[in-house]
Task: structure prediction
Amino acid sequence: MAHIIVTEPGQVSVAVPLRDGLRAGRHERNDLVLADHRVSRQQIEFSRTPAGWRVKDLRSTHGTFVNGGRIEESHELTDGDRIQVGSVLITFIEAEVTQQIVHEQLTSAAIPSQPDDGANRRLRLVYEVSRAIGALENEDELLGRMLEAILDVLDCDRALVGLTSGPEGSLRRVVRSRKTAAAEEIVLSRAMVEAILQRRQGVILRNAGGRETPHTLVREHILSAMGAPLLVGSRLLGLLYVDDRARVDRFSPQDLEFLTSLGHLTAAALEGAERLRSATAMAEALGAGGPTDDLIGASPPMLQLKAQLHKYGAASANVLIRGESGTGKELIAHLLHTLSPRAAQPFITLNCAAIPESMIESELFGYVKGAFTGAIRDKRGKFTLADRGTLFLDEIGDLDLAAQAKLLRALQEGEIQPLGAEKTHRVNVRVVSATHKDLVKEIAARRFREDLYYRLNVIEVETPPLREREGDLELLAQALLQSSASSADKRLEGFTPAALAALRRHPWPGNVRELRNEMERAAINADGPLVDFTDLSPRLRSASAETPAAPSAGATLAERFGQLDVLERQLVEEALRTARGNLSEASRLLGITRIMLKRRVDRFGLNARDD
Ligand SMILES: Nc1ncnc2c1ncn2[C@@H]1O[C@H](COP(=O)(O)OP(=O)(O)OP(=O)(O)O)[C@@H](O)[C@H]1O
Result:
């Protein structure tokens, strides 16, 4: 049954099963009462549709938002949708949950004081879990408390939460055991973990000892085990696992159903906490300014990127930066170094695509005199030069397999051996690498080593392309123009509307690098004070699909002259669209008088309004 997870500020998250016609609002007659002054008395209604579920806004005063956007009237829900009303967050979950548990949870304001039978102990656990993770402060400690409660209720030996946020693709674990006070090492069955994570379903081991029992469980003397995924929407955060060494068939299908419900609840709370952390980091990043000020951009993906840089700069883990060409990968690698404790040490760059295969090893590790013909003196490699600092490996996807094997060894052992040297020596290097290639595809095509990928990609950062960064184009164009103008010793104030429109129309496949080149050119061409359409490159003046085709060379003079009308009409239409039909505003955009524009509007029979 589908359900919603309701998170009110300062309250525990509560899971509520959905039913057709369920209403939420401030009035106490609602099925779900939301005590928030920005929620209307009747705010929203959920209804079933042939395709699934829909949420309808009941003409609320402050509106209903789904995934950040205000809904017009109603919205078809998909798994994981986040509905915001006032300060209340409601997450829609399509997956199955145990109705009994979630329903009881909804109606219990406090721990129930009924006889302590199995069902009530479970209910109490759900309550405890909600309370613990709702107040999420120290994640590990609270997950630990939840696991202790699970051990108690399910009466089994050991319990574990494995989070996929662990280093290098491994699971970060929180473990509790009934027998030992110390956190016991739990060896998980790979087959079970894969089944849970890949199928995204709960798995239960019954008849342990049978021929199909996974080897690890037999070796570890585990007689019963079960696990469930931590899923929120389509996002997999890890798994919940319990086992027992005393009894066979310890867990029933109802136990698994119960564990699965807890998995949903835990995942929703963990994700909520993660969002809070990233919002806090973003706020800190925005307030902090500092080195990331060099990274121009205020669009949501750029703000997120800046927050990530502040968060990851201080870590010493390796970082892989992915992104299209010209999106600022090198700039970001340098910022990661500047923000790190290694900032006072060297930042060394190697472009793997620019070095011939035969030389890559000596570039990376260096050589000693006499190592090969022409090695007339010792040469230090990039690893040695970057010792205690950062090594930036650009275009890592272009490294050949032989060099990948050597790089992997250096990263695994923290030691390098220059060509021809007898001994290895230790180096302490943080590797930041970058690529525009999809390394997962490269791994599948056997062109990139998977083990190296995990070594490099402890933290992954993605640089967004310019076309996805709404509003950044203008910011970047202005800043890059100013820096080019001052190098050319000119004073330029900005752009004419026609130049700006051409900049906005262009798709910028070469991203910021292409824009920087364009601004250098414009600064040279422009006589000032504004850069005009004619100062831009021919590519910008003619490449856009919306720009009318240049008059064809073979046409007569009269035909070509006639085509001017087409261009003029398109520009007038565009200006009117931008100015929402306002004549004065549109004439200002076109740089002509209002009367001149009115004459053209009449000639083309267009609609416009007087101010
Ligand atoms: N957000 C930004 N703010 C200011 N300048 C930027 C920004 N992004 C990129 N640049 C500038 O654009 C140019 C290209 O950036 P950079 O060389 O870092 O891109 P890249 O992703 O490493 O490209 P490639 O993959 O082709 O090597 C540089 O001059 C860089 O300083």
The domain at 3-93 is CATH 2.60.200.20 (Tumour Suppressor Smad4). The CA atoms of residues 212 and 316 lie 43 Å apart. The chain has five domains: 3-93, 103-279, 300-464, 467-543, 557-604. Residues 295-297, 323, 325-331, 394, 436, 512-513, 516 surround adenosine-5'-triphosphate (CB under 6 Å).
